[in-house]
Amino acid sequence: MSSNEPPAISPPSWLRWFVNDAVRGIMHQADSAPVGCHFYYDGENDLWEVTLFIGRSEVLGGAHDGKTVPTGLEVDVTRVMAAFDTAPGVLWQAEHVTPQDELGPHLSFEGETRGHDVWLRILQTPPDWAGVGRLLHASTGEFEDLW
Fold first, then answer.
1. φ/ψ (deg, to 5) at 4
2. From the CB of residue 80, how many other CB atoms can be counted at a distance below 10 Å?
3. Is residue 104 packed enough to be buried (19+ CB in 10 Å), middle (13-18) or exposed (0-12)?
4. How far apart are CA 70 and CA 120, in angstroms?
5. pLDDT digit string (tens) for 81-104?
6. How many CA atoms lie within 13 Å of 89's alpha carbon, on the beta-carbon side?
7. Which domains does the chain carry?
8. Among 36, 42, 47, 88, which is least packed, fewest CB within 10 Å?
9. Could you give phi then psi for residue 55, rounded to 5 degrees?
10. SS percent in the chain: helix, strand, coil, step 5
């Protein structure tokens, strides 16, 4: 680790509980890729930013080696809202706002949970930096989670 990189931090326990509650509202099939999470604390605004997404699946071997398999996403908005102390503000961003917009289409929830202000985003597709979340082995049909 270089001296410019911030130390890795673990999320506080209340944030882990909140994320687990929110993930229960992301309805995906049992064989879908794992759910990824990125969090950031904005100390200037005393706000926790949380981003959730289902990882990409990539075929390994066979005629479709290297192809990405689509992962469906269904969100139970009411269940995600229940992770907050009171009803949060909810917005839908239907497309990229600018060419630099890394989040793209997503649901956004802003509210308070466990005494903390949280801005939760659930992305339609995972960010490019997240990489592949799991592999589909063409020879066996088995999935292997990478994260």
1. -85, -20
2. 22
3. middle
4. 23
5. 999 999 999 999 999 888 888 888
6. 6
7. 13-55+68-127 (3.30.460)
8. 42
9. -70, 160
10. 15, 40, 50
